[in-house]
Amino acid sequence: MQHHTLVDDLETILAESGRESEQKVKELCTDVKSSLRAWDSIFSRIHQSNPTEDSCIKLQADIAMAQWRALGLSVTPKLHGLECHVVPQMRSFGGMKELLEYWVEQEHQIGNRKDIDWMSQSFASQATLRARHEVSSRNKSTIGAKQAVRKKFTNIRKRLQKETTKQKNAIKKEGRKEAIDLLRDRMLSGSSMADYSAIINESN
């Protein structure tokens, strides 16, 4: 299933600019989309807890890195780590999920937003808010009501997220496999950018 992406919009803008031929723009954007899908596949496997040996073997960072270099992009230390060291570490530590720090960054963002909201209040408003919070946090009726509301909406949210996530994962999985297969075929056949673009067009 194909979906409109930001790269599709960029392809239109670049083609309309007239700085490069439409064919060259299409080939480049197709390569970028395939590269991003390949990396999406890699990151999804890195996030698995206790990955199987099959997942380690199928990580295939070398394929994504070959495409990365073909696009003329720089290899940063983090990409070097993904290419050369992630699989041994996945095998040694039972996956990388517990070592990632995305949740820490998210907490920083949430805390920063709360700090900004708090600092925008006057001293009088801050004092009133603190007092109200202290009172409500000790009120048994308020505590019980909060717990009931949290339980109700948490269950609803979890169910909706589960249904949505299942659909999104199916779409992502299809795109990841397609991207990896196409990149592998290109590496093995040594096909040109134009040949590769034609193969993708046929698959679409």
Question: Explain this structure to me?
Answer:
This protein starts with 5 loop residues before the first helix and ends with a helix. Helices cover 80% and strands 0% of the residues. Helix 2 crosses helix 9. With 204 residues, it is an all-alpha fold. The protein is built from 10 helices and no strands.
Give the gist of this structure:
The protein is mainly α and 204 residues long.
Helix content: over 70%
Largest sheet descriptor: none
How would the global form be characterised?
A: elongated
Overall mean pLDDT: 77
User: Which runs of at least 5 residues are low in confidence (pLDDT < 50)?
Assistant: 192-204
The topology string of helices and strands comes to: HHHHHHHHHH
For the termini, the CA-CA separation is: 8 Å
Tell me the radius of gyration: 24 Å
Structural class by helix and strand composition: mainly alpha
Total number of β-strand segments?
0
Number of helices: 10
Share of residues in strands: under 5%
Q: Which key phrases capture this entry?
A:
204 residues, mainly alpha, disordered C terminus
Topology diagram in text:
Elements: H1 6-17, H2 22-46, H3 53-57, H4 61-70, H5 77-84, H6 86-93, H7 102-119, H8 123-138, H9 140-189, H10 193-203
